[in-house]
Amino acid sequence: MELAVGELAQVLGQSQPRVSRHVGILCDAGIAERRREGSWVFLRRVGGEDAGPVHAALERLLATAETENEEFARICADDRRKLAAIRQARDASAEEYFAAHANEWDELRALHTPEAEVEEKLLEALGAAQGASLGAVLDIGTGTGRMAELFAPHAERIMALDKNVEMLRAARAKLQHLPAGKVDLVQGDFGDLPFAAASFDTVFLHQVLHFAQEPAVPLAEAARVTKAGGRIAIVDFASHDREILRDRHQHARLGFSEEQMHAHLRNAGFEPTASQSLDGGELVVKIWIGTRKGAVSAPSIDTPRKEA
């Protein structure tokens, strides 16, 4: 499991500076990789396609040592108990965070179709419910990590991005039961995605786009990182007049009309398909899906004209 350097020091019973020094050596050797998230640094072992023969040899060596050396086996068992305590601490921290914001989220949920219904329709719309693979997935604005968790069985791997560090920590607690390497959590902004072009087969924006002052920017970035023929799935509200969402929940946009969203998708480089509407509440939830069709042009943003 991915661990903060401080958590790793806690498990090993060593000072953080000492652990950081050894982490540097492991990363320089290509055995592990680190990632900064706010003031925290997280470490994970290199695995999957990036793992070479040295990694396989190390795994065999550690497995043999644990089987044949009673003292080493005892140390490993002790480490696993400490890891379990860290998992529990993460869960407790996430519950505390959710409890602090429960009233806000409950107020918003009461206005629209139950999330389980939306999730079911989204799985159907993408063919995942019928067994189709979503390939490499990017979940922009992952929030609690619910979408990443929902689509994990249908994806090769998932990159879950959020700007809010507290939300990422909550998502990490929610997703820590998944296999290591299945989901990567990354801090970043939807207007400047930290990924190479054409990296993903499927991109999600679940109840995220209404936070964008200029939706063309995150959509252009989403198109940039989507492979040709890949898809984007946007779940958001249809146009509405609930100003309370702007005042109390920081929504920059009060939903989107069909014409607006189709124009945004086409300008970004996606070909939209027919949308789906779920009107089980005061707010109508819409599912828009688009297919990446070609080169992406720069987003069209109106700028003030200078006086002569």
Q: CATH homologous superfamily of the largest domain - what is it? A: Vaccinia Virus protein VP39
Ranges where pLDDT stays below 50 over 5 or more residues in a row are 296-308
Percent in strands: 15-25%
Rg measurement, Å = 22 Å
CATH architecture of the largest domain: 3-Layer(aba) Sandwich
Terminal CA distance reads 60 Å
Remind me, CATH topology of the largest domain?
A: Rossmann fold
Total strands = 11
Number of domains: 2
Structural class: alpha/beta
Q: In percent, how helical is the residue content?
A: 40-55%
- What is the residue-averaged pLDDT? 85
Shape: elongated
Q: What is the highest CATH level, the class of the largest domain?
A: Alpha Beta
Oligomer: single chain
Query: What profile does the largest beta sheet have?
Result: 8 strands, mixed
Order of helices and strands: EHHEEHHHEHEHEEHEHHEEE
Task: Describe the fold and architecture.
The chain is built from ten helices and eleven strands. The protein is an alpha/beta fold and 308 residues long. It folds into two domains: 85 residues, Arc Repressor Mutant, subunit A; 182 residues, Vaccinia Virus protein VP39 (Rossmann fold, 3-Layer(aba) Sandwich). Strands 4, 5, 6, 7, 8, 9, 10 and 11 form an eight-stranded mixed sheet that branches. Strand 10 and strand 11 form a beta hairpin. The longest helix has 40 residues. The relative contact order is 0.10.
